[in-house]
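Title: Request for sanity check on Phage minor structural protein prediction

Description:
We are preparing a figure and want to confirm that the structure record we downloaded matches what your pipeline produces today. Could someone re-run it with the sequence below and paste the raw structure tokens into this thread? We only need the token string, no images.
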Amino acid sequence: MAIKSILTVQTDFTGEFPVSDQTVGLWRFNESVPDGNTMLLDASGNNRNFFVSGWSGTSASLVLGRLGRFFRQNIVNPTSERTHLVATNDGSFFSDLGEKIVVGGWINPTTYSIGQNFIPIFNTRHGPGQPIFYVSLYQGRLRLMLYNASGSLIYDQTETPSITLRNNGWYFIASIIEVNSKRVQNLVCDRSDGAIWQSPIRTFTGDLNQNCVANIVMGMLADTYYYAGGFDDWFYEKNSELTMEELISYFKSSILANGGDSTADVDALTEPGTVMLKATSGVYAQNGQLYTTAAACGLAGTGRVSVTSEYTAGVTAISLVETSTSDDLVSWTQWQSVGPSGELQSLNRAYIRYRITLTTQDTTRTPKLIEIQLHDIPKPPYERLGFARPVILDTTGAWEAVLENAFDIIVTSEVNGADILEFKLPFHDPKRESLDNEKQVQIVNDVYRIRTTTDEKTSDGRVITQVYAEAAFYDLSFSAAKEPMDFVAETPEAPMHYALLSTGWTLGNVTVSTRRTWQSTEKNALSILRATQNIHGGDLIFDSANRLVHLLTFGGTDSGALFCYRKNMKSIQRVVDTRSLITRLYAYGKDGMTFASINGNKEYVEDYSYSSEVRVATLDASSFSNPYQMLEFANMRLAQYSKPRISYVLSAMDLSVLTGYEHEAWNLGDIVTVDDKDLNLSVKTRVVRRQYNLQEPWKTVLELSTTLRELGDASAGWDKAADILSSADVLDRQEVKDLVPFNHLRNSRADDGITYWLNSGFDVDPNNGVSGDASFKADGVLGMTKSLSQTIYPASRRSYTFSAQIASENLQKGPNGQVGIEVMIEYEDGTTETRFIDLF
């Protein structure tokens, strides 16, 4: 899969003029006021700042507009205000001009500037020394003048474009000056209607003043003539690579974007390279739509859009991604939502633009859009594993070589586990030179990366190259280091999204809905994803071609495929293993905590469904501080080990590669039927591991199991999960005794009914209290929230303790149910923070 285009920098979202290596100066005017030295910043990074002459006591201002702020001057009376801008030449502005210089930017003229004979825009005629160019308006028409080293005029042309400048209109103007070819071409564009005019290519004689040391002055000439109106995004490049076509493309694309527009509900300026909802007085808009500039499309295959963002699950979101395409940057298709996995639904045209909807349920928070990628996914050269061959990809993801002579091609893959490719190639094969380590190899829709190449001369004299490659998702283990992160009663989307940030991979479909409270201490994306699957359950599916990660409740189908002797099964082995059989499992959590108080005073769970023999083991759950989650974990663990582990290993043929047997297709994770009369065996089971021989599909080896196998050994997986799980602290009896209580809650035991509480759905039970006679009680209803709340005003302390005792008999949670304490903390500066303590 090749990346066709990426939008990730500020100019992609705002339409501002981009910086290049050839930019001498670029002035965006995005400040609200000049700095303490009355300077406006140069965005090129070259520190060529503008001094504002005539700032104080005039109408000069930095006004909100379409590209952030713009500089406005001399609106009241140009001849008396005399505001202008000066960039001091350090001697390098015009040295080493190269082949081409380009100057241009946006103007917002007033009637005064359109009607006068001589209105300076961007010039070098104020000295010191002799000038090189002078860009101006003459009676509202663009005029360019060029000078030689002696100060003589070598070019003077006033253009008569088809575009008429009007008061308060916005126009993009630019001049391309070819230094050695001695050619000039000018451009005028009208934002209001998208009109474009380019001059004929004109010529000049003589040589430009490449020894010019004059300053750049905007809006003034000879202390006599002044410009009235606005400037925005003015730039000057030397040794420029810009063409007239690129300047026109910039203009057409710039008017599409709104990330810098003061009237939009999105903001791409506050954090460069990031798009947020716009905040007004600290309050974010509830929703907003970003329109981007245009990017390259023109796909060779199908397209997929991936969006990298930061969001809070259930609160903030990138809620909608839409695309529109064009061949000329003028006529665009209707907006079309991308598919559920980012599939491009718009027509394949030369250019693409995006409309992204950002939303929040909490106006103190905002989602953040960081990057948009368009992936070009070529049609795979093979549609099935059977008889497929490895395809080497180049750095762009395009096909480089099909290895027709590869042999012993084996793909080994496991549910929630390994995925590797191994094959051999004759050493003297002409395509051997394409086998470089870290290159990508495509097998049907899967992508692998070459990790080892081994050249070997065998005992029979053959010289071969052996290749070992790992699935592309293994690269996620090399992601930038991740900081520890707490997830409080979150569904798996939250940790998976955190894991994939800045990896180039995107979250796909998630059908697992369990909520878990835990802390991730893993350092890379892949380990966080594995931990998430261990904790929440389900099947982790990596779509390497589309760089998507899914977590599905069940990552397969009931394929209907039948394996039986003399049909497609050569041999079969059934293994029944009771070596790790356990019927009684003790569990101990943080500080020796047990779940006895909620489990009939028993510190263990039991399951004698297979054996009546007491077989005891102890589970280290020291990372748990919530007895309810620890009990759930222990039962889940015991369910695995209270029964024999039954697996089947069979050598079988993939019949689906043969004409007429397509219905016999199966995939990793699918349910299949195995039938063998000699073994008195007829069972439905799942393909949990396959060793697929692409060259000889009849030599494929499958491992089947009636239970889902974790990565490696199941016990190791669960031990790792126990190490990283954490939850709300639950106090044991000794900790309660050690407390010196100071209860800020009033009527915490329901002695006075509901007094002091804000109640929604609770009653008082006068007969069943713990420390008193009464307690609060609620009967749960699916899809409904019931709550008790109280606001307290404690004195300042370093820490606080929340203590509660709950009765959980017959307590059952719905799919998204939560039982716990929600704490909203308001700080002295008015900011708030909400935390949820999960109790069940």
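Thanks, this matches our download. The first strand starts at residue 2 and ends at 7.
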